[in-house]
Structures are given as C-alpha cells and as structure tokens.
Design goal:
paralog of FGE (formylglycine-generating enzyme), 17% strand, 13 strands, 5 helices, 311 residues, 3-stranded antiparallel sheet, alpha+beta
Length: 311
C-alpha cells in the first residue's frame, strides 16, 4: 500500500520505536490553535477509497479539547531543536533516505529504486539538511516543512517541546476544519471555482507536473488558505506522522471517545497526502485517507505537526 505514496524503509523489522524522555518544561503554544472538545464523524464511505486502507465505516467520535500546530514543523523550527539538543536524525545515522527522482539532476548517478514505485530513489547523504542529497540544502526553504524525519525523529522533537504527535482521530478532526462529510478541508470540490487549495501533482504522473498550483516540490508550510480551524496544509504538501500504530480494522477494537488506535503493530500511520499525490494512482489527499509506514522510514515527502492537551 505505501510504496507509491511514500516507501517504507528496509532498515530492520520495522518495529523499532525509540523511547525519548519527555521534556519537563511547559509547552510553548505559540503558532498553535485551540480546538474545543467535540464530536465528529470519522472515516469515509467513499466508493473510490482504497479498501485496504481501512477508512470506513463512518462512525461518531468524541474528543477532548487540544491545541494543534497551525502548520507542519518547518526546517527553521527543526534546526532550532537540533541546535539546542544535538539530536541526530535516523536518516543521518543510516546515511541515506528516499528522494523523488523528479527532484534529482538528470545526470544523478543511478541508485536503487523502489520496485513498486521506481520514482523513489535511495540517495546517500539525503537528510533533513540535504533534502535531495549532499549537494542540496534548505537555506531557501526555512519556511517549508522539515523532511526526511522518521516517526522516531518526530516523536523526539515533540517530546523535547513538551508536546506529542496527534492521534489519528485528533488529526482528522483538525483536518476537517468543522466540516462534516467533506473529502477536503474546504469542502467537496478538489479545485473550487478552479482555485488550487493544496499542493499536489498536476499533469501526468510521474512524467509531467504542470505546476499549476505553483509548486513542484514542497511549498511553504503556511501556503494556501487555512481551513475553518485556522490550520494550513492539512492535505497535500507533506504526509504527517500520527501517534497511532496502523491497523485496517482499528475501528472495530478501539473506543469511540479519545481513541488511540491499537497498542502494537509494524507500521505507524501517516495522514494528509503530499505534493506527489495524483488521482491517477493515489487519491490519498483527502482528510479521511490513511497510509502505513514503518516508524524508521524517512522520505522527501513526510513531515509532522504536534499537539498539546487542552487541560
């Protein structure tokens, strides 16, 4: 399932989760929005959804209030975390990460490609500081989402900030922006009145991107209009890590108030789709869509945002 959207790393058995000590400091809620406690309808009955993803059935979910980042964590924010903590990401330790081939120079040396998705290339020296390999950088992308972070890296950042990753239910509640039953944070139409509302692939994937939305790779974390809760890019741009282990039938086993998913698994869940999503092969740029990756996976289209309990 995950090969086309973002490839899982082949770095072990996929079950590794790094435990990081939580910060004793109070969380800084600057750049966050407070979402009140409430009930919403989670999931989708979309007939074009992927059955193996386990989006449905639609069911009522109750949540306590929480704060959530308005934007995905940016390169500038992650750099401050690294400067303060000395943290080294897993991509840096392993020495490589997956990069979309279309972002590499035409004369880039041949590297291992993902069998099911050959547009993903294993690139030595690719990491959050060097998104397309050693000769690239983020000096002109301080306001773009940080990339090449694993679930473990995202959790380490959140813990250091006295925050946490959102549950799937919290993420979807936030992404919907107060709307009920709509596939997108702004409503039912992908491009209302011809207006682009998120950063996804246009054209013929993976050969041609017309860049009609203005971006080939990532865009700034606060690009496009926010949803009804004041949150930016909840769909498109980058996939976002959630706290939950991935399960297709989690809705059958989880509670309906503040659900947290199953207690163990092989893959963690990502939400929201990315700049590579295209209806011809991946309609996972919808608020109910789900994707599964091992927690030590890192690619050039995965980021994250954090939450804090309201009380």
């Amino acid at each position: 399932m995950s090969g086309c959207c973002s490839p899982s790393a082949d770095r072990g058995d996929g079950t590794t989760v790094v435990e990081d000590a939580a910060s004793s400091r109070a969380p800084d809620r600057t750049g966050m929005e407070l979402l009140p406690a409430g009930e919403f309808l989670m999931g989708s009955a979309d007939r074009l959804a992927y059955p193996a993803d386990g989006e449905g059935p639609v069911r009522p979910i109750k949540l306590s209030g929480f704060w959530i980042d308005k934007c995905a964590v940016t390169n500038a924010q992650f750099a401050r975390f690294v400067d303060e903590s000395g943290y080294v990401t897993e991509a840096e330790r392993f020495g490589w990460s997956f990069v979309f081939a279309g972002l590499l120079p035409d004369d880039f040396p041949a590297t291992r490609a993902v069998a099911r998705a050959p547009w993903w290339r294993q690139v030595e020296g690719a990491d959050w500081r060097h998104p397309e390999g050693p000769d690239s950088g983020v000096d002109d992308r301080h306001d773009h989402p940080v990339l090449h972070v694993t679930w473990n890296d995202a959790r380490a950042y959140a813990n250091a900030a006295a925050k946490r990753l959102p549950t799937e239910a919290e993420w979807e509640y936030a992404a919907r922006g107060g709307l009920e039953g709509s596939p997108f944070p702004w409503g039912d139409d992908l491009e209302p009145s011809g207006e682009h509302r998120m950063n996804v692939w246009q054209g013929r994937f993976p050969q041609e991107n017309t860049v009609d939305d203005g971006w080939y790779g990532t865009c700034p974390a606060d690009a496009f209009e926010p949803n009804g809760y004041g949150l930016y890019n909840m769909t498109g741009n980058v996939w976002e890590w959630c706290a939950d282990w991935f399960s297709v039938d989690f809705h059958l086993r989880d509670r309906r108030t503040n659900p947290e998913g199953v207690q163990s698994g092989t893959n963690k869940t990502t939400r929201g789709g990315s700049y590579l999503c295209h209806e011809s092969y991946c309609r996972r740029y919808r608020v109910s869509a789900r994707n599964a990756l091992t927690p030590d996976s890192s690619t050039g289209n995965i980021g994250f945002r954090c939450v804090v309990a309201a009380a």
